[in-house]
Amino acid sequence: MVALPLSVLPPGPLRIVALVVTVGLTWIVVSILLGGPGSGFPRIQQLFTSPENSVTTEPRARKYKCGLPQPCPEEHLAFRMVSGAANVIGPKICLEDKMLMSSVKDNVGRGLNIALVNGVSGELIEARAFDMWAGDVNDLLKFIRPLHEGTLVFVASYDDPATKMNEETRKLFSDLGSKNVKDLAFRDSWVFVGAKGVQNKSPFEQHVKNSKHTNKYEGWPEALEMEGCIPRRTTAS
């Protein structure tokens, strides 16, 4: 409280007036600092409020199926997939807002992670991981040889996708629409969506070579992320 020293206060009735004025001034100062009713000044608390604690009303960007920034047209399937990062973070394959393969689902592994999908209904047929470093390539061949016409094939690499690949494997993926599988090598990053019976090369494919000059991680290139909208097949046999 602001107060005048007793030595300077006037005697008698004037002393009472001075005390009343002092108390009044003190109340006004406190009222201003605390932002009382009618005050045109900011509250003293607001002077020490951090921006992080302030409430904002910025609109949040809307996300669509599988986190796409915009919706797919009718009769299209929304997808998003990410290859593995080095040999640490597993790949993800999402279709129509359903996670088909991921580390959380515990169905991914080193090598090629492949999800087979009905191209008409968009329903998952089967999802498996094939070890392309120490596994048997014949397991992979048995998986993709008998595909039915119109089956969609989602592929995401993890660690090493190519060491056990042979010519037949590369040809089968090429027939599914891949243009990069012929060059796929040890520890490359690769994501691909193809289909049984396609006439042209798929527009949904990314490939990064393993190179010590450009690798993001020690011994591995960067992870790849791809998203888009796939037209539904009209028929599948």
UniProtKB/TrEMBL annotation:
What parts of the sequence cross the membrane? 12-34
Name under which the protein is recorded: Protein FAM3A isoform X1
**Domain ILEI/PANDER: residue ranges:** 110-197
Alphabetical list of Pfam families matching this protein = ILEI
**A Gene Ontology term for the protein's cellular component:** extracellular region
Keyword set, alphabetical order: Disulfide bond, Lectin, Membrane, Secreted, Signal, Transmembrane, Transmembrane helix
Where's it mainly located?
secreted
Q: Where in the cell is it found?
A: Secreted
Q: Which gene encodes it?
A: FAM3A
Q: Which GO terms describe its molecular function?
A: carbohydrate binding
The family line of this record is:
Belongs to the FAM3 family.
Does the record bear DNA-binding in its keywords? Answer: no
